[in-house]
Amino acid sequence: MSLQSLAARHRRSLLLAPALIFLAVFFVMPLFDNSMRSFVTEEGGFTLARYADFLTDRFYLGVIAETVVLSAAVALISVVAAYPVAYVLVRKSGRFSGMIIFMLIAPLLTSIIMRTFGWQVLFARRGLVNQWLVQDLGLLDAPLRWLNTPGLAIAALVHVLVPFAVLSIASVLQGVDRRLEEGALMLGASRFRAFWEVTLPLTMDGIGTGAILVFMIANGSFVTLVLLGGGFQTLPLLIYQQFNTTRDFPLAATMSTILLVIAVACLWLQLRLVRRQGV
Hints:
Blueprint: H1 3-37, H2 49-56, H3 58-92, H4 97-105, H5 112-123, H6 128-136, H7 150-173, H8 178-186, H9 191-202, H10 204-219, H11 223-228, H12 235-246, H13 249-278
């Protein structure tokens, strides 16, 4: 290896060092310390009893299942809602593409707490939606109960996370060669069939990446479910209860580690998709 290549590698290492140190100190070390708490007994020994109890208890298994099902439902709805937006953004927007991207990204610049409070303002018992339906339009005799329902909580999560799915799908859709669709049309396929059999399969990587990304974020969602309720009992809510109510920090660390394992599994799937796209 030449001196120039060694010097270039040394410079790259120096440039990466601040970011790696920051991640190690403020990300890796806290996660490692939190995970270690779940393996340590009160006497300072090593134990797997907490994981054995957690993974064999029907209540905790139900919480894990509810967390996964909720995240999967949010991911599915987000992808279904995001695909038409991504298609219009890439294929039909023209000079308005910048405006659409801004409208997608702008909500992400707002605090998630403020956006969730916005849902409360709209759907409270005396909120704007009930006011329109009861007083202004006269469609209802009494206000509807929107808050603390599963549907509203899922809708709020989709509202927060759908931009991630849109951007994931749009990035892949932009790379699809339109001549393939034109060839299908020239061979007699309808526009729907050309989309279903040509465009959609070629964008499955973007759909998968967007779904995994939304699933991973929804899996750790906390603020939206706390403020809007919905009757869900998920791992993040249970971890919060352990920290603030029962003060059982080792059990909370056990739950956090399991949630981290689910997130790492999602990252592994996403990396697999990215590598397949690069092949």
